[in-house]
Write a structure and sequence with these properties.
By secondary structure, the chain is mainly alpha-helical. It has 6 helices and no strands. Helix 2 (about 20-30) runs parallel beside helix 4, helix 4 (about 50-65) runs antiparallel to helix 5 (about 70-85) and helix 4 packs parallel to helix 6.
């Protein structure tokens, strides 16, 4: 959590940016704190709605929280973003999660 603490101190100084928010979201996601990860990743996307990696990580955090509908919506937006950016690898990774959610919904 040391990385998140350092980044939180940077944020507290007013140095807010999409990159800083992504770093915080990533640090909290890695630490298993999905609530904080979601919070910072949403801020990241609000600042830069073309940040494919943020969509992908936000979708994963929502997936961990079992927020299937919200995760699916974020992944769809992320897939569109990845397509527009020509990021084929992100498209593939996001497609896997979309399929996982679809399978989960058909079982329910």
């Amino acid at each position: 959590m040391a990385n998140a603490e350092y980044l939180e101190k940077l944020l507290a100084t007013g140095k807010d940016s999409s990159l800083l928010r992504f770093g915080l979201g990533s640090a909290y996601f890695t630490a298993g704190n999905n609530d904080k990860a979601v919070e910072h990743l949403r801020y990241c996307i609000a600042q830069d709605d073309n940040y494919t990696a943020a969509f992908k990580l936000l979708g994963k955090a929502l997936y961990r929280q079992q927020q299937w509908h919200a995760a699916a919506e974020v992944f769809k937006r992320g897939f569109s973003c990845a397509s527009q950016n020509g990021d084929k690898q992100a498209e593939k990774e996001i497609r896997v999660f979309i399929e996982k959610i679809k399978r989960r919904q058909t079982k329910a």
